[in-house]
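Entry for the shared binder. Reason: the reviewer on the internal report wants the predicted structure included alongside the sequence.
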Amino acid sequence: MSSRISYDFIIAGMGCAGLSMAMQLISSKVKFDKVLLIDKDLKNKNDRTWCFWTKEKNNWYNNIIFNKWDSFIFKSNNFEKKIKLSPYFYCMIKGIDFYSFCIGVIKKDHRFDVITDSIIDIKSENNLGILTCSNQTYQSKLIFNSALRTQKIKSNHVNYLQHFKGWLIKTSEYDFDTNNPIFMDFSVDQKNDCRFVYIIPQNKNQALIEYTGFSPNTIDDDEYNYELNNYIKNNLSIKTYQIIETEKGSIPMAESKFTNEFGKNIVNIGTAGGNSKPSTGFTFYFIQKNCQKIISQLEKNKNKIIASSRSKKYLFYDSVLLNVMNDKKISSKKIFIDLFKKNSPVNLLAFLNEETSFVKDLKIMNSVEKLVFIKSAFKIILKH
């Protein structure tokens, strides 16, 4: 293998976090000459959809938001609520639009090298980050890593997955409500678990139907297919439809922490950096916030970059919810119904985006079955 090639920065992984980091570097005041962006392959498939809410109007990704809404619908068997979101907007970005836009911009910037290669190892050595790949070894003062994850799993922690499979379908039998996506539909069989469907309309005859579960393990592909088909035929009364695209994945909803075992010259980002919210699996918005904090440190020429850590109070809230869901003293379905039924939409969305004061937090907590949550909170305090 040839000698190491040096860069100012290396970004390992070309998913949401890696590409977001590169895009924010480009528009920043950080001084650099060469950056390496590397992954095992270029992202050229529409393999996922990111949905999130924000009240910010000027973001670098504004031009690739496929659609945004000022309301959405939460529903269950005997409860349905159209939720006005102002000052927030619920936004959708297609994976392929995100990848194509980012890689297109990055390749036009002469300071970036975009390379495909398999990443074998990442480590810190002699005050440098070392990235070993199949065909070459690279070094830089900092490596932003979203490619390799290390997580310290504790036996007494609740470690769930948000797992999902979605079909983008086209049908002439049904007119989707293009003004109101279905944020969560809990009318599906819960199977002593937490399961729901969301619907993201693209036009009146085309929508993404996604079946989602929160549980320790994923389910078989045949079960996803059955549940999706069952929902489309029985809940939506659509008998004939065409599957245009499929997406499938899982996101850690973990009480155990992701750790950095690669040394001081490696900064973990994305899910590897703990940017997937443990209680909901939402990731896109938290990745953007984390990248902004890292860029701010780089602009100030900080000698040591401190990977952003989430607020301890929200980590605690997430742990409480995960433990309540796992103990099953009350159904997850009821928890979410209570949250959306009894709270101001703006306060609830701010709470889920980790943007609320403690006073507002208390109002949110007061909307769920307090005794069950208090017992869970004491349980967490004792085990930690």
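Summary line for the report: The first strand starts at residue 5 and ends at 12.
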